[in-house]
Amino acid sequence: MSKMRSHLNRSEEYICCLFLAIFVTLLFTQIIVRQFFQYSIPWGDEVATYLFVWFTYFGAVVAAKMSAHNRVSFHFNYFPPMVKTVCETLADLLWIAFNMYFVYLSYDFVFNKMNLFWKSQTTGIPMKYIYLILPIAFLLMSMRILWNVVDRIKGIEHDDPEVEELRKLSKNK
Predict the structure, then answer these.
(1) Percent of the chain with pLDDT over 70
(2) Is 119 helix (H, G, I), strand (E, B) or coil?
(3) Eight-class DSSP state of 75
(4) What is the longest distance spanned by two Cα atoms in the chain?
(5) Which of 23, 25, 70, 71 makes the best surface tag, with the fewest CB within 10 Å?
(6) Quick count: other Cβ atoms within 10 Å of Cβ 9?
(7) Would you say the C-alpha torsion 77, 83, 147, 111 has a positive or negative sign?
(8) Is 126 helix (H, G, I), strand (E, B) or coil?
(9) Helices (H), the chain
């Protein structure tokens, strides 16, 4: 299980970095080509938009892995440790339920309700491949949240990296 988890960690982070690198490179190329050669890559903006969307959803998956999603949780710190764990676990289970419902809806949309002939404007890519990120990302997020719940029950905390950084800074003062 931990080997699969480790491989998934690296894969998600690699894909996220790859999409960001291609996105930035494509936009930079678009700017250079427009400014210096008075030419525009016809499909550049469209592909950059799709890459940004995929990057954003994979970024959300990576954030779920690190428990770095925005959530109102300051009040949990006033609870006894057991109550805090139960409340955070219930909140995460509700989040998983929402995600799984969205996986169902998005899968149904992509594979059953979407017109097979919908294609992107300039590239001609079938739109179902663009929208496929929805069930993929929400399923991966659910897996991450579930793993975090299991870790929390085992006593392993996954704090937001910013919270950990603040703790380190406050200890150094």
Answers:
(1) 91
(2) strand
(3) G
(4) 64
(5) 70
(6) 14
(7) negative
(8) strand
(9) 2-37, 44-65, 81-108, 127-131, 133-154, 161-172
Per-residue buried b or exposed e for 125-164, using 16+ beta carbons within 10 Å of the residue's own CB:
bbbeebbbbbbbbbbbbbbbbbbbbeebeeeeebebeeee
Q: Which amino acid is at 77?
A: N
Task: Provide the CA 72 distance to its chain's centre, in angstroms.
Answer: 19
pTM higher than 0.90 for the full model?
A: no
Confidence of residue 166 (pLDDT cuts 50, 70, 90): low
Question: Taking the CB of residue 113, how many other CB atoms lie within 10 A of it?
Answer: 8
Q: In this predicted model, what pLDDT tens digit does every residue of 98-141 receive, in sequence order?
A: 999 999 999 999 998 887 788 998 999 999 999 999 999 999 99
Tokens 């793993």, residue located: 147
Mean pLDDT score, 74-103: 89
